[in-house]
Design goal:
By secondary structure, the chain is α/β, with parallel strands linked by helices. It has a single domain, classed as Rossmann fold (3-Layer(aba) Sandwich), CATH 3.40.50. The protein is built from six helices and eight strands. A five-stranded mixed barrel has the order 3-7-6-4-8. Helix 1 crosses helix 6 and helix 2 packs parallel to helix 4.
Length: 218
């Protein structure tokens, strides 16, 4: 295990809890996990309030949507390239040895298959999320030793519930009452929710393993 301290930031509370639990079970110490909240605003708020230990490794870890055919639900990817605003690209200092996935950030959740296809056609990115571009911008400006690991909760062929963004607070916690209201209005969402839970759990398990690999890099 690396001797330097490490910070793992997750947009959602359940992502943080899952990864922290995995690291504890693996006996990995000298690592702090934090929940920043979803989206670019979540990353900015976290950056403003967080003081990092000197020479820390900083990893963004959590779930994303799949855009390319190889980004299947339940898999996890260490990111080699981040596509930012105006197609600016960033290369993490910790990118792993086996994965070469790229991620692009959107301003809001892509709920339809058509939206995913259009973004993939424009960027050729493998994954889409809400945070990586902002995280990469800050990490590069601050000269962090940084990396990104993303697990695929929904692939390119899977639509998402339109109200999904309202199910999470700005601090990354699930709003059970909002989920229940959406299901009451559209009972057919139960099947989609069950599928997302299953694929998200598989993806986060894989993310946790990728985190270990990046932490072990010299």
């Amino acid at each position: 295990m690396m001797s330097r301290s490490a910070v793992i930031v997750c947009p959602l509370r359940r992502e943080q809890q899952f990864i922290a639990r995995h690291l504890r079970r693996a006996g990995i110490d000298n690592v702090t996990t934090s929940c920043c909240g979803p989206g670019a605003d979540g990353i900015r708020r976290w950056t403003e309030r967080t003081v990092l230990p000197d020479e820390s490794v900083v990893l963004l870890a959590g779930l994303a949507g799949g855009l390319s055919a190889r980004a299947t639900a339940g898999t996890a990817w260490t990111i080699a390239g981040v596509i930012g605003d105006d197609d600016t690209t960033f290369a993490p200092t910790r990118a792993g040895a086996s994965n070469d996935a790229t991620v692009v950030s959107a301003g809001s959740i892509l709920a339809t298959v058509e939206d995913k296809r259009a973004l993939h056609a424009r960027t050729r990115a493998d994954l889409v999320d809400l945070e990586s571009a902002t995280f990469a911008t800050v990490a590069t400006a601050q000269r962090w030793d940084w990396g990104i690991i993303r697990g695929v909760s929904d692939d390119a062929r899977t639509p998402l519930p339109p109200a999904l963004a309202t199910w999470v607070t700005p601090t990354g916690r699930t709003r059970p009452s909002r989920v229940a209201l959406s299901v009451a209005r559209r009972p057919e969402l139960l099947a989609s929710i069950a599928q997302l839970r299953t694929t998200s759990a598989r993806a986060l398990a894989a993310v946790s393993l990728h985190v270990q690999v990046l932490l072990d890099e010299p």
